[in-house]
Design goal:
- By secondary structure, this protein is an alpha+beta fold.
- It is 24% helix and 31% strand.
- The strands form two sheets. An eight-stranded mixed beta sheet has the order 1-2-5-6-7-8-10-9, sandwiched between helices. A two-stranded antiparallel ribbon has the order 3-4.
- A hairpin with a 6-residue loop joins β6 and β7.
- The model has no long low-confidence stretch (mean pLDDT 95).
C-alpha cells in the first residue's frame, strides 16, 4: 500500500472541482464544513484547531482530507477524505457538503476522485462509507460511485462498500 504522508500533498482535479488540503488560514471560510470525530466546529478558532488535528492524522498516516473547491469561484463547497486509518487495506471515505451547495453534483464528483485515488494511488482493496439510513442524498452519492449497501450497524447506520 502507498499510504500518507506523501512527499507532496496530493491535489485532485476534475473539470469543475479541485480537492486540496485545508490550511489554517482557510478556517474562517470553512467553519460550516469542518468536523473532527463527528464534532462540528463552532467558530474559526475551532475550525483551525480541527484542521491542525487532521494534519496530525495525515502525518501519522491515518488519513487524508481535502477541501472541495469550486473551480469557477475558488470557493470551498465541502470536504472529503479517508479517515480512521487503513486496516486490512481498507479505507473509510467520509464527506460533508456546505448546505448551499447540496444537490449540485459536486460531492458525487469529489467522491469519485477520492475513490480513484484510494484504489489507484493508495492501492486500497476496499473502500467503505457509513451513512444514516435517512440520508438518502448521501446514499445516492455512494451508489452513483459504485458502492453497495453491505450491512446495517447496531446504531442503525448503513455501511456501504466498494471493492477494487
Amino acid at each position: 500500500m502507498n499510504l500518507p504522508p506523501y512527499p507532496v500533498y496530493p491535489e485532485l482535479k476534475s473539470d469543475r472541482i479541485i480537492l486540496k488540503a485545508f490550511v489554517v488560514e482557510d478556517a474562517p471560510h470553512v467553519v460550516e464544513i469542518t468536523h473532527f470525530q463527528r464534532i462540528r466546529a463552532k467558530d474559526a478558532d475551532e475550525a483551525a484547531e480541527m484542521i491542525l488535528k487532521v494534519h496530525e492524522r495525515y502525518q501519522q498516516g491515518d488519513g487524508i482530507h481535502w477541501g472541495i473547491v469550486d473551480r469557477s469561484t475558488n470557493e470551498f463547497v465541502g470536504c472529503c477524505g479517508f479517515y480512521r486509518g487503513f486496516p486490512n487495506e481498507t479505507g473509510e471515505v467520509g464527506y460533508m457538503m456546505h448546505e448551499k451547495f447540496r444537490r449540485s453534483g459536486f460531492m458525487t464528483e469529489a467522491v469519485s476522485l477520492a475513490v480513484k485515488f484510494g484504489f489507484e494511488e493508495m492501492q486500497l482493496k476496499k473502500i467503505i462509507a457509513i451513512t444514516a439510513q435517512k440520508n438518502l442524498a448521501s446514499q445516492g452519492v455512494l451508489r452513483r460511485n459504485g458502492f453497495v449497501a453491505a450491512e446495517i450497524r447496531d446504531d442503525g447506520d448503513l455501511v456501504f462498500h466498494r471493492l477494487r
